[in-house]
UniProtKB/TrEMBL annotation:
The entry's keywords: Carbohydrate metabolism, Isomerase, Signal
Domain of life: Bacteria
Upper lineage: Bacteria, Pseudomonadati, Pseudomonadota, Alphaproteobacteria, Caulobacterales
Family named by the database record: Belongs to the aldose epimerase family.
Protein name: Galactose-1-epimerase
CDD domains for this protein: galactose_mutarotase_like
Gene Ontology annotations of biological process type: galactose catabolic process via UDP-galactose, Leloir pathway; glucose metabolic process
GO MF annotation list: aldose 1-epimerase activity; carbohydrate binding
Organism: Caulobacter segnis
């Protein structure tokens, strides 16, 4: 079985031309003494993207503001030791199943599969030793339109309790002549399984060292959100966003929403929700939302 998915992020600015290139650098060794490689991509406009093969983790996305000043807009950790102990999974690929599975089990084809139970008897992002804690194999790529890095991981049947051996490939592709980062996922399983892969990056378009994203403006055309219970486990219900704090169909300032006294925010201490986009029958890239920082002039558009 094979499944492919492409996720595109475009960060907007205009600037002078620079030479596109790829660098491979040491990022130290794991506690087990295994070397970790940091790969840096740079395009013709000066945007750069860096990732390490531990967790296929994005460690930096540097892009200028309207005045040409560079800043890294993703939260990161200073060294491999910090990534090995980090529980927030900054910029990493999480799996085999991103999100929460209630009661640490699921049924597939009549068979019950038991997983690692965490807080509130939930399985979060596959478990404590998920794909974000693995060393992936890595290669680089270069063609007329882009430079990139490709990460591959094999997860055997029974890994984290999930059925089926799985080969997962994640590609980060930086376009040479536009500030576009393209994320490509491909998974091949040798038996029926469940899978839900994502990248766990945290963004601050003012720069990763800036205080908050309160002044960021967000637009998301989702008409529904996934309801959760008191443990944050999905109930299966998809409810309308209309009349709730999760309605971003009209652009809203993040800080204005977070100030509201609303049960949907109180249960998570802010946003920790899944917004549901309309079904994309054509399976082609289309606009899923944008977020902008008016002060720096940076805007991130997601397809």
């Amino acid at each position: 079985m094979a499944k492919g998915l492409t996720f595109i992020i475009a960060l907007a600015w205009a600037g002078a031309s620079h030479a596109a290139h790829i660098q491979r650098l040491s990022f130290g060794n794991t506690r087990a003494g295994v070397p970790v490689v940091r790969t840096v991509l740079r395009n013709d406009l000066g945007m750069s993207v860096a990732a390490i093969d531990f967790g296929a983790t994005l460690t930096a996305i540097e892009i200028p503001d309207r005045s040409g000043r560079l800043a890294n807009v993703v939260l990161s950790r200073p060294d491999i030791a910090a990534y090995e102990t980090n529980q927030r999974r900054y910029g990493a690929v999480v799996g085999r199943y991103a999100g929460r599975i209630a009661d640490a089990r699921f049924t597939l084809d009549g068979v019950v599969y038991r997983l690692e139970a965490g807080r509130n008897n939930m399985t979060l992002h596959g478990g404590s030793q998920g794909y974000d804690k693995r060393l992936w194999s890595s290669t680089t790529l270069s063609d007329r339109r882009s430079v990139g890095m490709r990460y591959t991981l094999y997860s055997p049947a029974g890994d984290q309790g999930f059925p089926g051996g799985l080969t997962l490939t994640v590609t980060y592709r930086l376009m040479r002549r536009s500030n576009t980062l393209q994320l490509e996922y491909e998974a091949r399983a040798d038996a029926p399984t469940v899978i839900n892969i994502t990248n766990h990056a945290f963004f601050n378009l003012a720069g990763a060292g800036a205080a908050t994203i309160a002044d960021h403006r967000v637009w998301i055309p989702a008409e529904r959100y996934a309801e959760v219970d008191a443990r944050k486990a999905p109930t299966g219900a998809l409810l309308p966003v209309g009349g709730t704090v999760l309605d971003f169909r009209t652009p809203r300032r993040v800080g204005d929403v977070l100030r509201l006294d609303d049960p949907l925010l109180a249960s998570s201490g802010g946003f920790d929700h899944s917004l549901v986009l309309a079904n994309n029958a054509k399976r082609s890239a289309r606009l899923a939302g944008w977020i902008e920082d008016p002060a720096s002039g940076r805007r991130m558009t997601v397809l």
